[in-house]
Amino acid sequence: MSRIAQCFEGLAQRQRKALIPYLMAGDPVPSATVGLMHDLVSAGADLIELGLPFSDPMADGPVIALAAERALAAGTSTLDVLGMVAEFRQTNQTTPVVLMGYLNPVEIIGYERFAREAAAAGVDGLLLVDLPPDEAEALDAVLAQHGLDPIFLLAPTSTPHRIEQVLRAARGYVYYVSLKGVTGSAALNTDEVAGRIATLRTRTDLPIGVGFGIRDRASAQAVGRLADGVIVGTALVKPFGELPFAQARTVLLEKITELRTALDELA
Question: The pTM is what?
Fold first, then answer.
């Protein structure tokens, strides 16, 4: 059983919701990332989505796009990110790590090399925003050989055909985008999310994580009542573009603690 499956199974047995924070690797500097990953776990994260910095992050709003720019300016490469995961694994063998990014850097490295080195580093899954399931067969075959889970996005605009494709190809969990737009958007409609998740549950046994638009206690609880996991990115990344590192880290940990407490109150 994969680390991701073990994580969600254990949480389900304890009737807890997964808190899944997103962190841009290399932001504000590469040397900070591993420590921040450990901080997230200590504050209550169950699974970490680690962003691969890319120069054209089409699905990301300005906060995460600027975080990618800072990471790239600091010299962070995709292979550097794998090194960060390997360092994290020296003292944490249990928390799943999913890399989230775009196809181009993976293609440049090559599917086989990337999957082999990612697995060796301790990566558990890969979410490429711009790789739809009907174009992912070649990469998926390589990921499967190395025990990595492909994670795919579903959105309010996903057609029945696309939903079927995603549910057929996905492993680990399904990432449901709670609203139309880019990361950091604010118009969260929980009634619509509830209807979509109810439909998905009739078609898959995979856990469902929900992201986009979750930023505080109220939105985390609203989504936590519906989903298996709550994914938070922009609210955690934003402080690193506005504050000195020590202050940004404090804000990050306060936010994670707030969200963890909010989700635990649902149990």
Answer: 0.95
